[in-house]
Each structure stands twice: as C-alpha cells, then as structure tokens.
C-alpha cells in the first residue's frame, strides 16, 4: 500500500501522514525534510542560493538519509542529525529556490522512490509532487487543502508569538514559488482525492484518510 499525500504548506500533511502511518503500521516519509536537508547543506557550504548552476554542480554531494518510522522520523546529512536545523527561518526562506533546481529534484526523487519500493509494509509519502511525479502509480492519492487564514493560524500557533499576517504572506509566497517552478511543481494529480481541512480538526482529517486507505485495501482483496 503506497499512499501519496500532497498539498500546500500548513494543510496538515505531516501531522496527518505520521498519524495515519502509525495507525495502519506503514512507514512514513517526509519529502519536504529531504529538500530542507539539501538546502541546509547548501547554506552550510556557502553555495550561492541564487545561482542554480552552482546548486546543480554540487547537488550529488551530500548524503541524505531519512528514517521512516512514523513514531520517530529522522533525517541526517553526511551523518549529522539535522532535524532541528532544517526548520530554521533561514532554511525555510531558501528551500523553494533550491528545490526548483532540476538536478536537485532528480537526486531527491531517486531517494524517495528507493525508500518507497523498499518499504515492506507499505508507506505514506507526503510532499508536493508525490502523486504527480514521484509515485504516479500510488494506490491512493490525497491532496490536502485549507484556506490561507486557517493555515496561517495553525503555523502561528506553532511558532509562538509569530505575527499571523506575516506568516500568511510567507506561506502564500512559498506556495506560489512551489506551484510555478518548471520542474515538478506543487500540483494535484488528476486521480487524487481532495480533502479541504479548513473546518476539520486534525483528528477528523486522520479519520477521513484512514477510512480512504481501508476502503482501498478492501477493494484490492
Ligand atoms: N486539521 C487541523 N486543524 C488544526 N490544526 C491542524 C490541522 N492539521 C494540522 N494542524 C496543525 O497545523 C500545523 C501544520 O501542520 P503540518 O506541519 O502537518 O502541515 P504540513 O502541510 O505538513 O506543512 P508543511 O508543508 O509546511 O510542512 C501543525 O501545528 C499541526 O498540528
Ligand atoms: N515533494 C516535495 C516536498 C517539498 N518540496 C519543497 C517545497 C517546500 O516549500 C519545501 C519544504 O517542504 P515542507 O517541509 O514545508 O513540507 O520543500 C518539494 O519541492 N517537493
């Protein structure tokens, strides 16, 4: 069972995917963390983020390893645990530029496909282009949405004290960059089920996705 969960930032992809995977005994892969990890490496190694040619030239250098246990997801770069550093404002503001470079996407997509095919019990993979490009044959594709207001309120709650208007503007900017890049943009696959989470609690979204997975499993028997 391969489940692809895509959508803009703050729609609940990570929280939902982790919980669904844990509940159903599946592995879990946060592909955004991989793009953040390669961005962290670029920043740490002084690569000019505004120079796609410079990024492309070194895209194959860092070794990125993702742990896929939904109860304890991990991410390392060249053996260093970067779970904390990849969530800084600096990385968040630069990740769209780095992830738009085709050589970066080719590299990370290979990693994602290899992890998905080696997950013996199945896997929930979340990101922006999983249903359209990375795993177009996924058994179930979900596209989560939510209003910018709801997403900004969720993120501001997480980043205690953050201004909700600035948070809303930042996530709209990142979504626009992720949706308009040439290489594998953020998009809903034609055969994805769209779930608008604006007025749903996280528990309701998890229940909805678990039901969709169980229906797929039953239909496959
Ligand atoms: N339905 C919901 N109702 C209320 N809060 C939610 C809901 N879904 C997620 N959240 C909260 O919103 C925040 C963002 O959720 P999450 O990180 O899962 O989103 P995401 O889509 O993975 O975002 P990103 O793509 O930016 O990583 C978290 O604090 C999470 O607990
Ligand atoms: N499949 C993916 C996943 C993520 N990205 C890029 C675009 C996002 O802005 C960034 C960080 O993702 P997040 O941690 O917020 O989920 O990574 C992508 O291009 N493709």
TrEMBL record:
Keyword 4Fe-4S annotated: no
Keywords on record: ATP-binding, Cytoplasm, Kinase, Nucleotide-binding, Transferase
One GO cellular component term: cytosol
Catalyses which reaction(s): CMP + ATP = CDP + ADP; dCMP + ATP = dCDP + ADP
InterPro entries: Cytidylate_kin (IPR003136), Cytidylate_kinase_dom (IPR011994), P-loop_NTPase (IPR027417)
Binding site for ATP: 7-15
Domain (Cytidylate kinase) ranges: 3-214
UniProt enzyme class: transferase
E.C. numbers: 2.7.4.25
Family assignment from sequence similarity: Belongs to the cytidylate kinase family. Type 1 subfamily.
Protein name: Cytidylate kinase
Native source species: Streptomyces luteolifulvus
Chain's gene name: cmk
